[in-house]
Amino acid sequence: MSPIGAKLVHSVPCRIVAFVLVMVVAGCHKDTPTPEPTATAAREMPTDAATQPPTDTPQGAALDTDAIHERKFPDRLLRYYAAALEQGRWDLAARAWRTSSGVTAETLKASYDRGSTTRLTFGTAEAEGGAGSIYYEVPVTLRFGNAAPEKGTLTLRRVNDVDGATPEQLDWRIERSTIGAGQ
């Protein structure tokens, strides 16, 4: 047998064996279903809060109560707030505000309980830092049923990771609003 023929004899079986091994390994995962992402997994996917506008909250969305402790993504707190308002959960909506703001379940109910669905939608936000805090201002549109929409802004704030800051200061909270009666 010539040297070229010997190489072909040895390389062809090796290629066949390699091909069979690849096919066997690929076939092992053929019937394994791909898991669907869970709500938790989707929620934990990072986004760039400064460039991603908050999304609308679907009607009747479940409340993401962990959003109250959010330190990275302010849009998560906004979705929580919008869902709480829509569901008339004034006590939970008030938790999105800084304690020092004076906004309570009673003030939210007085401002937003108008006998029809409250719907809060968001525009594109702007984030900026200043004096040890990060501010996140987002244009909003508030609708009560079929009434004319009210427009304004919500400003969220969190303290940068500074020694001595309280947990509430480190979490995103609504600091001020230009819609409704100050809420």
* Domain unit count: 2
Query: Helical residue percent?
Result: 25-40%
Q: How large, in whole angstroms, is the Cα Rg? A: 27 Å
How would a textbook summarize the main sheet?
5 strands, antiparallel
Q: Low-confidence spans: pLDDT under 50, at least 5 residues?
A: 2-58
Second rung of CATH, namely the architecture of the largest domain? Roll
> What's the number of extended β-strand segments?
5
Arithmetic mean pLDDT:
75
Order of SSEs = HHHHHEEEEHE
In the CATH scheme, the class of the largest domain would be Alpha Beta
Please report the distance between the alpha carbons of the first and last residues.
91 Å
CATH topology of the largest domain: Nuclear Transport Factor 2, Chain: A
**Helical segment tally?**
6
Structural class: alpha+beta
Question: What fraction of residues sit in β-strands?
Answer: 15-25%
Structural shape: globular
Oligomeric state of the chains present here? single chain
Short précis:
This protein is an alpha+beta fold and 183 residues long.
Per-chain topology:
Elements: H1 3-28, H2 39-44, H3 74-86, H4 90-94, H5 105-112, E1 118-122, E2 126-130, E3 133-144, E4 150-159, H6 167-170, E5 173-177
Q: How would you describe this protein?
A:
The protein has two domains: 1-34; 50-177, Roll (Nuclear Transport Factor 2, Chain: A), CATH 3.10.450. With 183 residues, it is of the alpha+beta class. 34% of the residues lie in helices and 20% in strands. The longest helix is centred in the first third of the chain and has 26 residues, at 3-28. The chain is globular and about 45 Å long. Strands 1, 2, 3, 4 and 5 form a five-stranded antiparallel β-sheet that branches. Strand 3 (133-144) and strand 4 form a beta hairpin. Residues 2-58 have low confidence and may be disordered.
